[in-house]
Specification:
Elements (H helix, E strand, L loop, with lengths): L1 H33 L6 E4 L2 E7 L5 E7 L5 H7 L2 H7 L2 E9 L2 E7 L1
Antiparallel strand pairs: 1-2, 2-3, 3-5, 4-5
Length: 107
Amino acid sequence: MFSFISLKFNLSERLALKLEFDSYKAELDDYIFNNNKTENIRTFSDYGGIIWDGGFLDNYSAIIYDENNNLDLLFKSGDKKIEESFGRSLVDVMKVQDNYFRCNFHD
C-alpha cells in the first residue's frame, strides 16, 4: 500500500514539474546568468535554487542549478559536503534536466 502511495505521489510530482518547470527555470536562469535575485531565489553555498514547493511543516522542495551536473551522484554517494552546502537535511534529489535538480529538504 505504501509503495502505491509513494508511486502515485512520484508520478504526480513529475507531472507537476513537467508543467511548471519552464517558468521556474526562467526565473532561476535570470538569477544564475544575470544576477537578478527575486524573493523565490535561495543561495546555498555553491548552488543557486528556487523554492518549488513550500511543503508541509519543515519540509520543502527547491529546484537547484548545478553547473557540474552531478548533484544526484554526489547525493547518492553520501558525500557529506552536499548536506553542509545546503545547511539542512537533504532528503532526496531528482534530476529534472541537465544541470537542474529537484531537491527535497527537511529543516
